[in-house]
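If your schedule permits, I should be very grateful for your opinion on a structural question. Please examine both parts with care and let me know of anything in them that strikes you as inconsistent. The record follows directly beneath this note:
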Amino acid sequence: MSRFDARSEDNLPRDLILIDTDRAVESIDLLQTSVENAPNFAAGWKASGVPKILDWLLAGTQTQRSGMIAAVRTLIDDILDRADRALEADRTRMATRVSTTLFATRTAALEESLTKWAIHGHGELRDSLERVLVSRDWKKLQWWKLFWRIDDVGITLGRVTADNWLKASERSLIWLEGRFAEAGLADQHDTDDFTATKQDVVPRPFAIEKARQQVLSESLPALEALSQTLVLQSASVTLLSSTFAVLIAISWPAFGLMQAGAVAALGLTWSLRRMQVKWEDARESWIEELRERGRQSLRHAEEGLRVRLAAGVVDSSSDVQMLPDLEEAAATIEKAKTALHKLESNQGSA
C-alpha cells in the first residue's frame, strides 16, 4: 500500500493493518546508506507498519489450548462456516423449488379442467349455431321477408349473436382464469380492454366477448348494408322492367299485353332470384364467420392457458435426489464442529 494519512488509522477496524511500503523502502535505503541513520530507520520502519505484520505472523504460529495453531483453527472455522452457509442456501433454494412444484397435483386438475372446457366450448359452438339456423329470429330474415323486415336485420342478428354465441364458454373461461390466478399462474398481460390484435394468442378473461364485439362492429354492419342494397336493387330492376314493358306496349300496339307482362315478369323473376342467391350466400358466409371466429377464440384461449400451465411446472426430480446428499453434508459439518469443541474441552481440562 502506498502512503496513507496516519490520522485515518484510528477509524479503521482493529484487525485491519495498514502497510506503507514506500516508507519501509525509504527506511531500508537510509540504513544501507549509513549506519548513522539507524535511529531514522527504526522510526520509519515502525511507522511503516511492517512490524505489525511480523507480530501477526508470529501470533499465527502460536498454539491455543486445543494444541492447534491459531491460523489453522481460524481457517477451519472459516471453512466450516462457509460450508454451513452454502448448505443453508442450497436448502432454501431447494425448498423454494420443491414448494413451487408441490402444486403439480393442482396443475393436473387445471389441465383436466382446461381440456374439458375446450371440448365443451367447441361442442357449444356447434350446437349454438345449429340452434341459430332453426331459430325463429333466423327464419324472420329469409330473403322474401326482407321487404318488410329490412330494418330489423341488425337488431335480429345482434340478438342472435349475443344470446347464442358461446355464452356458457365465456362464463366458464372467466371461472377458469380465476382458478389459474388462484394457483399462482396469473397472466401479467390480463386486461379488460379490446386493444389486442387478432394474432395475440395470450388469453384474456374476456377473449370471447372481444371476438363477439368484433363480429357486431365489423361483419354485422356489412350484412345489414347488403340487405338494404339487395332490396333496393330488386325493387329498381322490377320497376325498370315494368316501365320497359309499358313503353313497349304503348309504342307497338301489335305487342300485346301478354308479351308486355312477360317482359315485366322476367325482370321481376330475375331480380328476386338474384336477391335470393346473394342473400342466402351472405347468411351462410356470416354463419361460417361466426363459426371460424368462435374456433379462433377458443383455440387462442386454450393455447394461452396451456402455455401458462407449462411455464408454471418445474421439474424437481433432481432436487429430490439431492436431499439425501444435503442431509449427509449437514451431518458431516456438525460432526466436524463437535470434534473441534471436544478437542478444545479435552485440552482445556488437561
